[in-house]
Amino acid sequence: MSYQTAYIIPAYFLITLLTHLILKGAFGKDPDPSKFGRSFMGGLAFKMLASFAFLTIMFMVFGGIDPDFLAVFMGV
């Protein structure tokens, strides 16, 4: 395993935590179904874009991405 893989778990913890906070806003005082749908889609979009940004940053910092890193990234 490459040393790049050590960054995957903390990064996904932060991405998932922020996504959870976005979805937590959907369960406010008024149970509006459309608000939940917007929050869910917003959380999903945030998670996808944040994952892509993480891959881009790792590619730029390390000058490439190891196949081991990609295997663990896709598994997580």
How would the global form be characterised?
Answer: elongated
- First-to-last CA distance: 15 Å
Radius of gyration: 15 Å
Structural class: mainly alpha
| Largest sheet data | none
The proportion of strand residues reads: under 5%
Helix content: over 70%
Structural notes for this entry:
The chain has three helices and no strands. It has helices at residues 8-24, 33-62, 67-75.
Produce the secondary structure layout.
Elements: H1 8-24, H2 33-62, H3 67-75
Tags for this model:
76 residues; elongated; 74% helix; 0% strand; single chain; mainly alpha; 3 helices
Summarize this structure briefly.
By secondary structure, this protein is an all-alpha fold.
